[in-house]
Amino acid sequence: MDEIRATPFSAGLRRLCAEALLDGERVIWEGQPDGIARMIMWRFLWWLGFPWLLLTVVAIRNDWVDQAAQPLVMLGFAMIAAPLVMLLQDLQTLYMITDRRALILRTAWGRRTVSQTPFKAMDAVFEILDIGGGVGHLNFASGRSTRSPDTDYTGRYGFRCVRDAARIRHILEGARAGKTRR
After folding, report:
1. How far apart are CA 72 and CA 51, in angstroms?
2. Cβ(18)–Cβ(112) under 8 Å?
């Protein structure tokens, strides 16, 4: 999963990548989040959403709810759809390590965003949070706004749901030290 997957979104990501790179900047590593791992991480929403919808249908058939039926059904569908929406966002995301910085490119929902972190703005030690199945979060900056989809609730920022995060940390450390090779 170190290369960009061929999806309907890959052409847009490639164009954004070409625009985001500076003159003479070399790409050392690129990859995408593991969308399946993120979906599995949020599967509890399915465990809640399907029974919720079933109970809502029973309540509607027995006339237990009247005007509240539509919001209850919409909430059930939202719980079921959320992991799939996250998968779509991950398919529209590209992580890159260059010889100058780390980049997170996103073309999700028609909004093209480039988030960059120069090596000098990174933490001294990179943190890996294992989420299971060989997937983890590689945090390389702290004190970021928690409104970013790439930041956790404490402000730690980095690549989310990447396979073999330890290897990617090694690549990022090497790039920051100037020991770069593709």
Report:
1. 12
2. no
